[in-house]
Write a structure and sequence with these properties.
Chain A: InterPro entries: ABC3_permease_C, FtsX, FtsX_actino, FtsX_ECD. The complex is a heterodimer of chains A (about 300) and B (about 300). With about 300 residues, chain A is of the alpha+beta class. Chain A contains nine helices and four strands, in the order ααβαβαβαβαααα. In chain B, the strands form three sheets. In chain B, strands 6-7-8-3-9-10 form a six-stranded mixed sheet, sandwiched between helices.
């Protein structure tokens, strides 16, 4: 009985404030789409890092003949220097480095020839143009800086290179995109909160007569306020559902059907990920509506 | 039932108190008229009973509850035991007569089968059977006030408060409303009515509490309205309509009663007689009848005393 009555009141309120309700739905939809997009971007970044960081290594290039770098003053790195470097890696970086592999000039040339059988940009290179190097696989790729600090400046080492650096611009771009999305989401969420507040207030004003009588005959405050709170919550929830549907469609048609086919060597976010963040979006919507209505009703309607 | 102990109410700091050291004791089942000029504190008195306001000083007891200490979450329970009727009826224009009365029960969570039996019963009792589906604007003023009374009474409150219930009605229609309030009082419900209507007060001969600038200046049993020129000096010895917010008193014009009210009055009398017969036959089958018979017991006790 009570539930039915409250639902009837809610429906009536939604119908009476249709335009406001629609605007709440749209604003929540847009803001939560941004929240969801930011979350998906972060998931994509994590996925890429997980996949790529396992493949990449830190390359410690040894001095070749005729390098201008000060640590290479002695010319090409000799066996002694190589042994010293290996010793440093074992003793000082034992915890960080998972595997060490020494690539000779010859191996480097083989790998080069395999990759560029017709020569690189028209020049023919020889074994002596190649550099010997240590390839270090790190237990934790984030520890690159430590490796760099320990090895750079040692005799026989020309340069320490983190292959991750190649991906950095991409990750920076993705991270900035998520920051922008989060920023826009913040602005839109604020707008949504204000709109919900206004909608509830409007609804309360248009039903002042009813609520006055409800109080008079002894309806509890919760019972008087519940329809308004539910109105805000329902509008926000519909917006959240629309956002989930929108993100799902975007991932399905933009990522899974199009991007994944044209650039297929990357592991993309999937519609499953959208469903993973769906509860988060719904929770944000409910919290948004809850906070807005609590604030409004606390201020406007006391017994 | 209602006890005011040295109650004061000041709305704004520095303003003249709306009520100043008022002590009044209303017994269970009493019918009390509150009279006094506009601004004498009648409405404040009623608002304090409903706990729409808290007193600035003193104590207010209603149905055994100390309202000055009542926490706000208990206020709804208090109000369920009090019915309230206004001069401007305060009906919901987009709901039918039936829905208006049912609304009062729905919002306090009464089960549907209870509503389905109680509402037609009370509508018949106030003389509105057959008009359940009408909207308030399709009814005469007297009928609208009957709907409002039905709504106030449908939950069988122990106390009925009425703030100028006849203020918008012509004398004949007012008389019908007064008969109804009297009937409600005879079921054992305590009735407190604020009014300017001297004819009604004089005719009913009930207890009169007169307020003037927030003080009780008279409290008499079986009393009359008093000298109009003293109570309402600005108006003189002519009856007025007291519309809240309107400072200029308007002369009351006698109009012919609307046919709807006369019919309603007749139907209501019949329903009441019918009900009385039921009571005699079968004293405790319905809640309303229970109250009626309990009341007659109380009335007898009063007579004996």
């Amino acid at each position: 009985m009570r539930l039915q009555f409250v639902l009837a009141e809610v429906l009536q309120g939604l119908r009476r404030n249709a335009t406001m309700v629609v605007s709440v739905i749209l604003v929540t939809f847009v803001s939560l789409t941004f929240v969801g997009a930011a979350a998906l971007l972060q998931m994509q970044v994590t996925k890429l890092k997980g996949d790529w960081y396992d493949l990449v290594e830190v390359s410690v290039f040894l001095c070749p003949e005729g390098s201008a770098v000060p640590t290479c003053a002695d010319g090409e790195a000799g066996d002694e220097q190589v042994a010293a470097i290996e010793d440093v890696i074992d003793t000082e970086l034992g915890d960080i480095v998972a595997t060490t592999y020494f690539e000779t000039k010859e191996e480097a040339f083989e790998a080069f020839e395999a990759r560029y059988p017709d020569g690189y940009q028209g020049t023919q290179l020889t074994v002596d143009d190649m550099q010997a190097s240590f390839r270090l696989q790190l237990a934790d790729p984030e520890q690159y800086q430590v490796v760099d600090d320990v090895l750079t400046g040692r005799d026989g080492i020309e340069v320490v290179e983190d292959q991750r650096a190649a991906f950095e611009p991409l990750f920076v771009a993705l991270n900035r995109a998520s920051i922008v999305a989060v920023g826009l989401a913040g602005v839109m969420l604020l707008a949504a909160a204000l709109l919900i507040t206004t909608t509830i207030r409007l609804s309360a004003v248009s039903r002042r007569r009813e609520t006055g009588i409800m109080r008079l005959v002894g309806a509890s405050s919760l019972f008087v306020q519940l329809p308004f709170m539910l109105e805000g919550a329902i509008a926000a929830l519909v917006g959240a559902v629309l956002a989930v549907v929108g993100l799902w469609l975007a991932v399905q048609y933009l990522v899974a059907d199009w991007l994944a086919r044209s650039v297929d060597w990357v592991d993309y976010v999937s519609t499953t990920d959208v469903l993973t963040i769906a509860p988060l979006l719904l929770a944000v919507a409910v919290a948004l509506a809850g906070v807005s209505s609590a604030v409004t009703l606390y201020r406007s309607s006391r017994v | 039932m209602i006890r005011f102990e040295n109650v004061s109410k000041v709305y704004a700091r520095g303003a003249r108190p709306a009520l100043d050291d008022v002590s009044v004791d209303v017994e269970r089942g009493e019918f009390v008229f509150l009279v006094g000029a506009s601004g004498s504190g009648k409405s404040t008195f009623l608002r304090l009973v409903l706990r729409e306001e808290r007193p600035t000083g003193g104590r207010v007891y209603v149905a055994g509850r100390d309202l000055t200490r009542l926490s706000s979450w208990r206020v709804p329970a208090l109000r369920r035991g009090i019915g309230m009727v206004f001069q401007d009826f305060r009906l919901l224009p987009n709901k039918s007569v039936y829905e208006n009365v049912a609304f009062a029960l729905q919002v306090i969570g009464r089960p549907r089968h209870v509503i389905r039996t109680t509402v037609p019963e009370v509508l018949e009792w106030v003389g509105l059977d057959g008009k359940e589906k009408r909207r308030p604007h399709e009814l005469s003023g007297g009928e609208q006030q009957r709907v409002a009374i039905a709504r106030a009474f449908v939950n069988r409150p122990q106390i009925l408060l009425a703030d100028e219930p006849t203020g918008n009605l012509d004398p004949t229609t007012s008389l019908g409303i007064m008969r109804l309030l009297d009937r409600i009082n005879r079921t054992g419900t305590t009735v407190v009515m604020a009014t300017h209507d001297d004819e009604i007060v004089n005719e009913m001969r009930r207890r009169v509490v007169e307020l003037s600038t927030g003080h009780v200046v008279r409290d008499e049993a079986d009393a009359v309205y008093g000298r109009r020129e003293e109570i309402l000096p600005a108006v003189g010895p002519v009856a007025v309509l007291d519309a809240p917010g309107r400072d200029v008193p308007v002369r009351r014009i006698t109009v012919r009663p609307e046919p709807g009210d006369v019919a309603a009055e007749r139907a209501s009398e019949e329903a009441a007689e019918h009900l009385t017969e039921d009571i005699e036959r079968e004293p405790v089958s319905e809640p309303l009848e229970e109250r009626s018979s309990a009341m007659s017991g109380a009335a007898r006790a009063t007579e004996e005393a």
